[in-house]
Specification:
The chain is an alpha+beta fold and 481 residues long. The protein is elongated and about 100 Å long. Helix 8 crosses helix 11. It starts with a helix and ends with a strand. The chain is built from 13 helices and 23 strands.
Length: 481
């Protein structure tokens, strides 16, 4: 009887050991396939959003019970190192987040990430939980396809925190750590098309007057600005919000600053000028977009014109159409459309800003005179024992305090125009209410103009009225204040 029991136990143990042996063998085959990263990946449907990719992954496994975890590993590996192929449903190809060499340079880290601690599992999910298809191949191998959603934002933050990759935008800083401040506006075309702007007659010239206050009540505008603002901030660029700046300007309407001289001229300061004077943004984005549809799917068509806030000169333009989707929100559609071009677009911003830091910020100045000022600009005056035209004296002084003397100078009897004038980005100012050490403050056209006004007052005893005409232009009217 005892002998029979021993035989029964032995018979039971043999299949169990055989099962364990087979499972381990299948696991080893699967792991081998994993370490060689043998899989295919392609966008699933619209591809998800900018923060979460939806990927169709085909993996090769010896044991079907290992297929789901294998699909998650492969999906994350594709996002990090291989990229994801696009499809004909509107999803464009996704570039890998990091270069493949990073894997070998951080081999132990990724061994833990994918195998030992299995941290990858928290960044990937299967929406359905089941395979889309499964096919038995030769040599005990199965080809299994899953749809996997990868949380790209959280995955990136994890690798940034562990110092495996640099934060977004870090490589664009040129080593200086300085980045331009960006302020996002709807374009004039978008405002006009959506009923938030009107034309008015300004001394015979039709001028478009935007109504930013009403526009900011538009739900889609707020979604668009918030989406782009977040994408810019994620890459380390400081932003100034239009809504908060508008609230800080009393009434939110355009101010007319008229300075009457002998020629009876007048200068209007626009709403945009007033906003930028308060915000002090380095770069302005004029954004237009529309949501398109073919009856089933939706997508966003967009355009972004980046302008130097001081000169209104274009830095770069980005425009494209995003992937099609049947259910994504406006914000998700815009993020998907812009994501692929964002880093390259911001790189142009950084190049422009680096040139400003090296060569100085460009501004323009305009000189006028009141009748009370005894000199015309082509009259001779005396300075330090020498006789010269007043306009030549002004040119010499401006050159002495500018970044360099290479600027365009156009003098006349009652007017002087200066353009392409380069000034320092910042100036040291005495801290009267702190420790006494000087502090750096940003320099703009108005502050620079006040230095010239002080020089004229000191030399000739006449005050000047300095009028701000945007961040990058100021007018000095000599004779009264």
């Amino acid at each position: 009887m005892k002998f029979i029991k021993i035989c029964i136990v032995a018979l039971l143990i043999v299949p169990i050991n055989s099962l364990f042996s087979q499972t381990n063998s299948n696991r080893e085959v699967t792991e081998e396939r994993t370490r060689n990263w043998q899989y295919e990946s392609i966008c699933s449907e619209s591809g998800g959003t900018g923060s979460s990719y939806l990927i169709q992954v085909t993996s090769y496994v010896g044991d079907l019970r290992l297929a789901l975890n294998q699909a998650k590993k492969n999906a994350i590996h594709a996002v990090l190192f291989k990229g994801v192929a696009g499809n004909n449903l509107g999803c464009t190809a996704k570039e890998p987040l990091i270069k493949n060499g990073v894997y070998n340079d951080n081999f132990e880290y990724f061994e833990d990430f994918f195998y030992n601690t299995r941290q990858y599992n928290q960044f990937a999910t299967s929406p359905s939980g089941s395979a889309e298809s499964s096919e038995k191949l030769k040599r005990k191998m199965n080809r299994v396809t899953f749809i996997i959603s990868v949380n790209v934002d959280d995955l990136r933050k994890k690798l940034e925190y562990d110092k495996i990759i640099e934060p977004m935008g870090a490589a664009l800083g040129g080593g200086s750590g300085l980045k331009p401040t960006i302020m996002i506006f709807p374009s004039d075309g978008w405002l006009k098309d959506n009923g938030y702007a009107k034309f008015v007659d300004n001394q015979g010239v039709k001028t478009l007057i935007p109504d930013y206050t009403s526009a900011l009540l538009d739900k889609n505008l707020n979604i668009a600005i918030s989406t782009l603002d977040k994408m810019v901030s994620e890459r380390g660029y400081p932003t100034v919000r239009l809504a908060e700046t508008l609230k800080s300007i009393s009434g939110g309407s355009a101010l007319d600053n008229a300075v009457e001289g002998r020629d009876g001229g007048a200068q209007e300061t626009s709403i945009l000028d007033e906003l930028l004077n308060v915000a002090k943004a380095d770069i302005t984005w004029k954004v237009t977009w529309s949501v398109e549809t073919n009856g089933i799917q939706k997508w966003v068509s967009y355009g972004i014109d980046a302008l130097d806030s001081y000169t209104n000169k274009s830095i770069g333009v980005a425009n494209d159409e995003g992937p099609k989707s049947m259910g994504a929100s406006v914000g998700a559609l815009l993020r998907q459309a812009v994501t692929d071009k964002m880093d390259g677009f911001l790189a142009r911003h950084q190049d422009h800003f680096k040139k400003i830091a090296e060569n100085g910020r460009e501004i323009a100045l305009d000189f006028r005179r009141f009748d009370s000022f005894e000199y015309y600009f082509n009259d001779d005056v005396e300075f330090k024992g020498r006789e010269m035209e007043f306009s030549s004296l002004i040119r010499g002084f401006v050159g002495s305090i500018a970044k360099d003397r290479n600027f365009s100078y156009n003098p006349g009897e009652n007017k002087i125009g200066i353009t392409q004038l380069r000034i320092e980005m910042n100036e040291e100012v005495e801290d009267l209410f702190g420790g006494g050490d000087p502090v750096l403050e940003p320099m703009d056209a108005t502050k620079f103009a006040k230095k010239i006004s002080s020089f004229i007052k000191k030399q000739f005893g006449y005050p000047s009225k300095v009028t701000t005409i945007g961040l990058g232009k100021a007018r000095i009217t000599i004779g009264e204040k």
